[in-house]
Amino acid sequence: MNWSDIHLPALSPRYDAALRAALDYIFERFEPFGVIVSGSIVRGNPDPASDLDIVVLHQQSWRRRIQKWFEGVPAEIFINSPAWIESNLAEETEEGRPVMAHMLTTGAVVFSSSSQTRELIALARAVMTKGANFSDSALERQRYSAACLFEDALEIAERDEPTAALILGRAVDSAVQYWFASRQRFSVRSKEQLHVIRAEDGHTAQLIDEALLAPMMARRVAAARELAQTVIGHTGFFEWDSGPSEISRSETV
Questions:
Q1: Which of 49, 52, 199, 233 has the most Cβ atoms closer than 10 angstroms to its Cβ?
Q2: How far is CA 169 from CA 8, 55, 146, 224, in A?
Q3: Which is higher by pLDDT, 213 or 90?
Q4: Handedness of CA 132, 138, 141, 147 (dihedral sign)
């Protein structure tokens, strides 16, 4: 690695040392044509446990993920090929969770020896600009899945509070995901979801808080029931038809 080819973002001494160590590690073991570093550390608003998110682009067909400490700072390294990035961006669009697209568009390019780096970032930016586009059937599947979780939690709340609380947490999470999807919006990072909902829909945010944190299970159940009705329109089983869908060859073998 030639440091003259590296473009480091402005970081505090601690994070700068960690990124330099991570780059040494990456270039000693891999042959990247592009390296993008992202995350709250780069954006300038890290939490105490924040890590460096480093996307490594290479021409090999395989992909790899590494979690490692550098100078006391955690880092997640995502090593991917252009083909995988393109496939993943399409998959993220369908799921409404543009994690890789967000890293590519908000990160800092610290190394690039190919125009493919810019092309992949441009593709990610197009995904973020276009936004979510959930079909009616995809939204209905989300609603049905969430409703079933609420039904399971509410059904056993009186006789098995720990299990009900476990399922209720999943149900609330599914309602949060649907809150974004129903507005044809990509979901934000988990740490930011409630901040967005509180800013735009205070009543729903209050119900989420009570469903998760109310000291008495009876109040959690009441809040969960109202939350389900408010966000997904159901608290349990409802009639639904997915319609016909083709079975891929991989699903038949």
A1: 52
A2: 40, 31, 11, 10
A3: 213
A4: positive
Q: Can you give the residue ranges of every domain in the chain?
A: 3-130, 136-231
Please tell me the CATH code under which domain 3-130 is placed: 3.30.460.10
pTM of the predicted model as reported, rounded to 2 decimal places: 0.75
Q: Are 119 and 125 in contact (CB under 8 A)?
A: no
pLDDT at position 252, please?
46
What residues form DSSP beta bridges with 72?
Answer: none
- Give CA separation, 122 vs 48, 127, 128, in Å: 31, 9, 10
Q: 């809150």: which residue's tokens?
A: 179
Strands 73-80 and 64-70, by their bridges, are antiparallel
Dist. CA 171–CA 145, nearest whole Å:
9
- If DSSP codes are grouped into helix, strand and coil, which group holds residue 78? strand
When pLDDT is averaged across residues 116-124 and rounded to a whole number, the result is 96
DSSP state of 247: P
Contact criterion met (CB below 8 Å) for 103 and 38: yes
Which of 88, 181, 183 has its CA nearest to residue 138? 181
Token pair of 217 as six digits = 């299970």
Angle at CA of residue 225, ends 224 and 228, nearest 5° = 80
- Average pLDDT for 41-62: 92
